[in-house]
Structures are given as C-alpha cells and as structure tokens.
Design brief:
The structure holds two protein chains of two kinds. By secondary structure, chain A is of the alpha+beta class. Chain A has helices at residues 129-138, 169-175, 237-246, 255-271, 283-294; strands at residues 7-13, 16-22, 47-54, 63-68, 72-77, 80-85, 96-100, 106-112, 144-152, 158-162, 181-184, 187-193, 196-201, 215-217, 220-226, 231-234, 248-249, 274-279. The chains are: A alpha+beta, B mainly alpha.
Chain lengths: 297, 60
C-alpha cells in the first residue's frame, strides 16, 4: 500500500511540468531560489516524481553510463536510469539518488536522512538534478538547453547571447534597460513551436540572478566575445553549429540524444541568423544589437 | 549524354572546397554540469549557499 500524498510541488520550465509529491508528513516540499518563480498550481504533468527520505541507499548496480567528477554519476538500471549525487562533505555514499523510467516521465527521488534536517522543507530538484532531468527530457525530441543570456527587448525582439563562463553573459544582461526583459542571464531553453524557434527563461540564473518564467521567439543569435569596439562577424553554418554545440548541455551517455541534438542545432542555425559579436561592455552594445535587428543586418 | 546535358552538368558543379578542420574549445566541467555554481549550489539543505566540499568552483 502506498502512502497518501501529503505534500506536493509543481514547477513548469520550458513548457514542461514537473510534479513532486511526498507521502511523508515530515517531508515538506518547497521551491528554493529562482525556482519559486516557476511554481505552478498543478495540471497535467510531464514528469511525476515521488520524494522519500531514507536511512541508507542501495549500492548502485547496473552499467555505469557516466561520471561527472565528484558531483553525480549515472547508471542504467532495470530499463531505467539511476542518478547518484555525491559530495566530498558527505563521503563516498550519495546524499541523494533519483531513479527514472527510461523516458524520464516518472521517478523517485530518495534523500538521505542524515543529509537533511527533518524540520526544514526541502527542494528535491536542487542543482544539478533539475538541469540533468531537463537535459534528458529535451534530448528526447524536444529541444536543447544552452549556456546563454536571453533578452526580449521593448519591441518584442528576442536576442540570444551565447558564451562560456566569463564570455560576458551577465555583463550583457545588466546592460539592458528595464523596458527590456532578461529571461535568463545564464541558461536558456530552445524549442520549436509551429516551426518557429522560441527561447525560455529558466531558474538556473547567473550572477545577475535574472530568471523569468516566460518564452519569446528568437530573432538573432550572438556568440559573445570581448572587443575593442562593437562588431559583428557572420559565421559559416557548420561553425555556428559547432559553436552552439559547445555551449549546449548534452546527454553524453545517449547516442540517440546526441543525434537529435545535432540535428536540432542545425535547424536552429537555419532558422535564425547566427553572428559572432565582439562587444564593448557599455550601453552602446545594446543600441548596436537593436540597430542590427532593425536594419536586418 | 549529349552536349547540352554535358554543359548543364558542368554548370551545376561547384568548385571543390577542401574540408577544413576547426578546433572549438570545450569546457568539460560546464558541459556535464560537473561543477557547482555559487548561485545554484548543489547539495542538500542549502539555500543558495555553497556547501564546502561540494562546490568545486563557480561560474555563470
């Protein structure tokens, strides 16, 4: 017999709804940080997850598919997937595990009792599980998450600025006036809707802590770099795809997921102009971008 | 193949472009979500605070 649901939490990111339920009266669920902006009342869920607390985790069995440094490992297990989350502070045993069905639509998140306080609400999707789940869902024919700052200007034009850490995403986000809306200063989701490319804000912000729960069509894609003046350089399509790829979050364990993502990124470069943008970090960069869009350069 | 067909084929052919190899730098830790962002800290019970031992660095 399963426990009745005593607490629940629903979030919607990138038009995907995540439903978390707890059957343990001592396990209260609560979104943390910018994830609070993405909480929704309920409705049909794309992913349903049960949250439990445990005193010990079963040893991982099955094929180890991926190990990302000391933070997480992924196993193939019983036709599904098992993530184990570890940290030096807690020793070799995981402070959390998450099991998912093969299509990532159902799962169970198990929190180690020794690593959380019983009187404090928890956010079971805390980084990096939230993004790992999203990356895997998107790679199943839905879209891709990219390392980028995304801005909707006061005329409704959407600009996506891609870059690795230190490229200037947060700087660019802070340059825009309040009449524009920054959807994210660090992570953006890309999806096609009715043949048009859209970008979505995510809870996974950067230093500017800008995260908006909305989507907008993409008009231009810029690859950021610092320059002596504001200037644009066109990118050959194969180069643009490669640049996008290195700024995307990919399920490296999944050949099918990588195949889809490559094809998706090619579609992106065919749908929207992709330009290298070397910029000087002041307000003139914003005027330059907007002028470029207005003149269709 | 007659002369007209031969001429059309010649017109349609594009010049040979030698394949080029380009190197694109990767950031492995960023690419695999294998590091902790200071504002998106991983680990239990934290509220946007990095836990010593979990956070390997920061980035945005």
């Amino acid at each position: 017999m399963t426990n009745p649901e005593v607490d629940s939490l629903n979030l919607r990111v990138g038009d995907l709804t995540f439903a978390l339920t707890s059957g343990d009266p001592s396990l209260k669920l609560e979104a943390q940080g910018a994830a609070r902006h993405f909480v929704v009342a309920g409705g049909a869920a794309d992913v349903c997850m049960r949250v439990v607390r445990c005193n010990s985790h079963q040893p991982a069995t099955g094929e180890k598919l991926f190990e990302a440094g000391s933070l997480w490992q992924l196993y193939r297990q019983d036709g599904g997937y098992l993530f184990r989350f570890t940290a030096p502070a807690f020793g070799p045993l995981p402070y959390k595990t998450a099991r998912f069905s093969g299509d990532f639509t159902t799962g169970e998140i198990s929190l180690h009792a020794a690593c959380s306080r019983r009187d404090e609400a928890v956010y079971p999707l805390e980084y990096p599980l939230d993004e790992l789940l999203m990356v895997n869902l998107l790679a199943q024919g839905r879209g891709v998450e990219v390392h980028s700052c995304s801005v909707r200007d006061s005329d409704g034009r959407g600009y996506l600025f891609l870059g690795h850490s230190g490229a200037g995403k947060t700087t660019m986000a802070r340059l825009w006036p309040r009449s524009a809306q920054v959807l994210s200063d660090d992570r953006t989701i890309l999806r096609f809707l009715d043949g048009r490319l859209y970008m979505y804000g995510t809870p996974w912000h950067g230093e500017a802590e800008l995260a908006a729960a909305r989507r907008t069509p993409v008009d231009r894609i810029f690859f950021l770099g610092r320059g002596q003046k504001n200037e644009l350089a066109p990118l050959a399509p194969p180069v643009a795809v490669a640049q996008l790829l290195t700024r995307s979050f990919l399920p490296f364990h999944s050949a099918a997921g990588l195949d889809f993502t490559m094809a998706f990124l090619q579609q992106v470069t065919e749908a929207v102009p992709c330009l290298e943008f070397r910029f000087v970090p002041d307000g003139r960069a914003v005027d330059f971008v907007r002028r470029t869009a207005e003149t269709n350069a | 193949m007659n002369n007209d067909q031969q001429q059309n084929l010649t017109k349609e052919r594009k010049g040979y472009q030698k394949p080029q190899v380009i190197q694109i730098p990767l950031r492995p830790d960023e690419a695999v979500l294998g590091f902790c962002k200071s504002t998106n800290a991983g680990g239990p019970g934290n509220r946007n605070i990095c836990i010593p031992g979990i956070c390997q660095g920061s980035g945005s």
